[in-house]
Specification:
InterPro entries: CBS_dom, CBS_dom_sf, Cl-channel_core, ClC. The protein is of the alpha+beta class. About 55% of the residues lie in helices and about 10% in strands.
Length: about 850
């Protein structure tokens, strides 16, 4: 140990930025180059690609200065480490370096395309790889969406009964070819082929015992579905829980989360969406489709080196995949593009727009071909009316928008508070028990209400629809003074009948139940989306307000504000179904704070292109009211998880300069600035530095007396050198080979997958490490860091972080290094500025 300390005391680092050979940055595999071939005892290591990082170990006597020419060339051992290009987990990518590496790779392919036919084909394949990749993403996302929609609907209906002629058919499909189809109070099909569980076991349908048995089977299957998927998610794929949209936003901003877009997450979340929605919980599967599509994009991107080996370019595919998730979930391709552009994407170049358009189109075509909704087209909640809306209805539309914004703010605060309690208490240690209890409570509460017994897409479809002549459900029970002559006659306004009054109370109870239960459901260890629950709650509130507005308008047609719109004919001047559409837009906008994409999605989902202006009014009102109380649900979840997401739409409200921000970030911290001197540091000093200050990157300065910045070096590169040297010294045998050229391989070649020294690595390891060495690491130094002066306004610094995708920026004063600003520092400063502004307004 004493000799080792002496060795470290004399071993020196040299980080001088000497010129290096032209390097190819496309290498992605950890390997080693032997700069000097041994004389037969050690096998040479081949490298496929260019070098990217060099470490030179020079064995020399103590009386030879580092800058002198080496008289004994046989004492020199040159080692070249090719450090991995992939990033560590939970690390931010370097956008500038990745895009530069992609340009270098493209130039090489372009310059070599005329050398041979093979290289020409490789060039054309690389040029078309983006279109091929998004084509595969669109096809796979559409297939998964169709499979999930069909499976979820069948499993949901299985809780209430079974089709005896073909058990794989849901209720609607089972009654398609039946001649004696009739409907119940909520427009559910009733036919001879579909049998409830009480009928299967020979019970009389109208008895109390049969009702309680159907009640028991409904609760039983709900708990079974939830138990199966929560065990699968918690045990095999924890990343499959939640909607995934906050994490996708963070990943697209440049954050690395290995496994979040993996194949196991993709498989389990695809299955989990069917079981979670079929269990009757207040959650949706449309939000998780964004996560599923991004998993497809990540898996297919690995097939193309252009995207698989470059994290910045991969995010172009992920942006297109996120848009496709909305496209296949709702049948809204244009809305999906705008959703990705407005809400999800961080880097969205112009060429990505066309590929996203193509990807969404393919996904929508696949969904239309599969026809999971059974209506012959890809629209999920089609409306079959085109009645004009009255001018006075702007008032209830604005009221619905304000109500949606208020509910969104209340939901966000309540849900985030519950998630914090789950995270900080023992409740978070029992995710399976929480899901089972929540499922049991939900099923027990929902079954007595026939509207809550429906799936949320079925409920929304009934709420946004218009009553027809042959509709006999409670929502269409009006006391009409005269009968309708024909089925094609237009309906006229009338007083609400007893069935409609009964339906309103059921809808109000359903609204209260869903609004409360969704607070505790979102955030559990299940694949759970918030889009469909928000639409459902908003449609319930909108339908209630629509019916109330309709009755007020019918009873007060003599008023001046209503006489022009409602006194002309006996037709409806107020359409309650339209209010359900407006309410859905308001409540979803109040939660997510979307505007343009929300209006387009709602127009595409319903097919109601005539109601774009009311949707715009409602969406803007909901956003304005919601923003008065805080951020949207996705931004709050990002903050709750502590992800380093730099919001690109938020303004910085302080007039600080970079030097002041450095001093403010150092306030209360006694830790000095950690940097590496380019010449003269011992290996022991560097090892102590990286262990005491575990930063991801270190500045390299000329000297302690004159800390002029010359570059930056990554921690992982230093650790690879130090760890490799330590392992090699441990593996050194007593019979050292002196005065000969040997080679040292990197740590990855010395260790096997289990982390133990491998036999091949031991045979290849160097045994020529002597007591005095100098490590020349000049090729590890990045000599193009981003530098600003201490007088640079923080607005400009924040724009550099946003638009350049910087990981850190060095601040200098008169040429001397003053400090470092990282992405987390910027996020913290912006958060403190926002908090201080809110206190100023109190």
């Amino acid at each position: 140990e004493q000799s080792q300390a002496c060795t470290d005391a004399r071993a020196r680092f040299q980080l001088s930025p000497v010129p290096s050979d032209e390097e190819n940055d496309d290498g992605d595999v950890v390997n080693a180059l032997m700069s000097n071939q041994s004389d037969g005892e050690f096998p040479s290591l081949q490298f496929d690609g260019g070098s990217s990082a060099t470490v030179t170990m020079i064995d020399q006597p103590n009386n030879i200065s580092p800058d002198s020419k080496y008289p004994n060339d046989h004492q020199v051992t040159n080692v070249t480490y090719v450090v991995r290009k992939h990033y560590e987990n939970f690390e931010t990518i370097d956008w500038l370096k990745d895009l530069m590496r992609n340009r270098i790779r493209h130039r090489i392919l372009r310059s070599q395309r005329r050398d041979s036919c093979r290289k020409r084909l490789a060039y054309y394949y690389d040029a078309w790889s983006g279109w091929i990749c998004v084509l595969l993403v669109g096809l796979s996302a559409g297939l998964v969406a169709g499979f999930v929609d069909i499976g979820a609907k069948w499993m949901s209906h299985w809780r209430t009964g079974v089709c005896t002629k073909a058990f794989w058919l849901n209720r609607e499909q089972c009654c398609w070819d039946s001649k004696d189809v009739h409907f119940d109070e909520v427009h559910n099909e009733i036919c001879s082929h579909w049998h409830a569980w009480s009928d299967i076991f020979g019970m009389t349908y109208t008895t109390a015992g049969a009702w309680f048995f159907r009640y028991f089977m409904f609760v039983f299957w709900s708990v079974i579905y939830a138990a199966f998927i929560v065990v699968l998610v918690v045990g095999s794929a924890p990343y499959a829980s939640g909607s995934g949209i906050p994490e996708i936003k963070t990943i697209l901003s440049g954050f690395i989360m290995y496994g979040y877009l993996g194949k196991w997450t993709f498989l389990i979340k695809s299955i989990g969406m069917m079981f979670a929605t079929s269990a009757g919980l207040i959650l949706g599967k449309e939000g998780p489709f964004v996560h599923i599509s991004c998993c497809c994009g990540n898996l297919f991107a690995k097939l193309f080196p252009k995207y698989g080996t470059n994290e910045a370019r991969k995010r172009e595919i992920l942006s297109a995949a996120a848009a496709t998730g909305v496209s296949v979930a709702f049948g809204a391709p244009i809305g999906g593009i705008l959703f990705s552009l407005e809400e999800i994407s961080y880097y969205f170049p112009y060429k990505t727009l066309w590929r996203t358009f193509f990807c969404c189109m393919v996904g929508a075509l696949v969904v239309r071909t599969i026809n999971p909704y059974g209506n012959g087209h890809e629209i999920q909640f089609p409306i079959e009316y085109n009645a004009p809306w009255a001018t006075f209805e702007v008032i209830p539309f604005i009221g619905l928008g304000a109500l949606g914004g208020i509910w969104g703010a209340l939901f966000i605060k309540a849900n985030i508070a519950w998630c914090k309690k789950r995270k900080n208490t023992r409740l978070g240690q029992y995710p399976r028990t929480e899901v089972l209890i929540l499922t049991l409570i939900t099923a027990i509460i929902c079954y007595p209400n026939q509207y809550l017994r429906l799936t949320m897409p079925e409920l929304i479809k009934r709420l946004v629809g218009q009553c027809h002549v042959d509709d006999h459900m409670d929502l269409c029970d009006y006391d009409r003074a005269r009968p309708i002559e024909t089925a094609t006659s237009k309906l006229y306004a009338a007083l609400a009948g007893p069935g409609l009054h009964r339906a309103l109370w059921h809808l109000f109870w359903a609204l209260m139940v869903q609004a409360v239960l969704v607070i505790f459901t979102i955030g559990t260890k299940l694949p759970s989306g918030l889009i469909i629950p928000s639409i459902s709650i908003g449609a319930l509130a909108g339908r209630l307000i629509g019916v109330i507005t309709e009755q007020i308008a019918f009873k007060n047609q003599h008023l001046a504000i209503l006489r022009h719109e409602c006194g002309v004919s006996n037709e409806h001047c107020v359409t309650p179904g339209l209010y359900a559409v407006i309410g859905a837009c308001a409540f979803l906008g109040g939660v997510s704070r979307m505007t343009v994409s929300l209006v387009v999605i709602m127009s595409e989902v319903t097919g109601g292109l005539s109601y774009i202006v009311p949707l715009m009014i409602t969406a803007l009102t909901a956003k304005w009211v919601g923003d008065a109380f805080g951020d949207g649900i996705y931004e709050e979840n990002v903050k709750l998880s502590g992800y380093p997401y730099l919001e690109n739409r938020e303004s910085f409200r302080f007039t600080l300069k970079a030097g002041e921000a450095i001093r403010q970030s150092k306030s209360g911290m006694a830790t000095p600035l950690a940097y590496i001197v380019q010449d003269g540091m011992t290996i022991a000093a560097v090892d102590t530095l990286v262990r005491r200050h575990p930063h991801s990157i270190y500045p390299v300065v000329i000297s302690e007396e004159f800390p002029c910045l010359v570059g930056q070096i990554q921690r992982r590169d230093i650790m690879a050198v130090l760890t490799s040297r330590r392992v090699q010294q441990t593996l050194t045998q007593p019979k050292t080979l002196l005065n000969r050229r040997t080679s040292v391989v990197s740590l990855s070649a010395l260790l096997n997958k289990s982390g133990q020294p491998s036999s091949i690595g031991v045979r290849r390891a160097s045994i020529a490490l002597q007591a005095s060495k100098i490590l020349q690491l000049h090729k590890l130094v990045d000599r193009a860091p981003i530098i600003v002066t201490d007088q640079t306004p923080m607005e400009a610094v924040i724009d550099m972080f946003r638009k350049l995708g910087c990981r850190q920026i060095f601040v200098t004063q008169n040429g001397r290094l003053q400090g470092i600003l990282t992405r987390k520092d910027i996020i913290r400063l912006m958060h403190e500025a926002n908090v201080q502004k809110r206190f100023e307004h109190i």
